[in-house]
Amino acid sequence: MAAGSIHIGIGGWDFDPWRGTFFPAGLAKTKQLAYVGEQLTGTEVNATYYSTQKPETFARWAQTVPDGFRFALKASRFCTNRRDLGEAGESIARFCGQGFTQLGDRLGPILWQFAPTKKFDPDEIRAFLALLPARQDGIALRHAIEPRNESFRNPGFVAMMRAAKVAIVFADHAEYPLIPDVAADFVYARFMQAREEEPTGYDAAGLDRWAATVRGWAAGRPVDGYDEVGDQPAPGGARDVFAFMINGAKVRAPAAAQALLARIS
């Protein structure tokens, strides 16, 4: 059975504790992204959450990494940290118009992360989904939403996301809700419970489980061990997978991503 592409990565490429633990000693900071591109197949960019980047910056990033590498972009806080998400149209247009399409085929999904205080309001979320552009500068966009409030564990939310073909982030986190339902033709996963006492963040059994989960997503198979929220089973078919080792014991994120990638490869 054919499977989708799998991209495994970390958050960004500039974290001082990675120097000497992941990055070779003495590696110039200007070479860190290239090194990430040699070792992994994706990264989640947090800088886009805090500020607008220049088109030439995105173009430079794209030229630094090899074919097959993908940048997932965290959407601006001005889009998602607001009282009414349905009024985010101007901020969304500004974010999507900043020039990230210069990434070309290195562009991965856009992550729209909601605040933990944002509760599920069907009308508000429906209005927000209608604001997400399908294309920008002629390039198709993929969108993923990460809700962080338990109220989103609602079959209506899952149905809404499937109708919009927007992914629900699979968030492995100690506090935020886990909604395992597949809603789009790709999966976006954030693994956030790495432990510093484990050299690879997760123990071997944990990494084996994540590898099996990722392979299942890519092949379009149901993934065992998770209680789905939606009323209907996920649509079948191969899916691309974007999985990132984020937060938790961040110093272990690169080793965790490398170990996961080795199991999948």
Short description:
The chain is built from nine helices and eleven strands. It has 265 residues and is of the alpha/beta class. The strands form two sheets. The chain has a nine-stranded parallel β-sheet.
Structure description:
Helices cover 31% and strands 18% of the residues. The chain is α/β, with parallel strands linked by helices and 265 residues long. It has one domain (6-241): Protein of unknown function UPF0759 (TIM Barrel, Alpha-Beta Barrel). It has a nine-stranded parallel beta sheet. Strands 5-6 form a two-stranded antiparallel ribbon.
Task: Break the fold down into its secondary structure elements and pairings.
Blueprint (H helix, E strand, L loop, with lengths): L5 E6 L20 H8 L2 E4 L1 H4 L4 H10 L5 E5 L2 H4 L8 H8 L10 E7 L8 H10 L3 E2 L2 E2 L2 E4 L8 H10 L2 E2 L1 E3 L13 E6 L12 H16 L20 E6 L7 H12 L1
Parallel strand pairs: 1-2, 1-11, 2-3, 3-4, 4-7, 7-8, 9-10, 10-11
Antiparallel strand pairs: 5-6
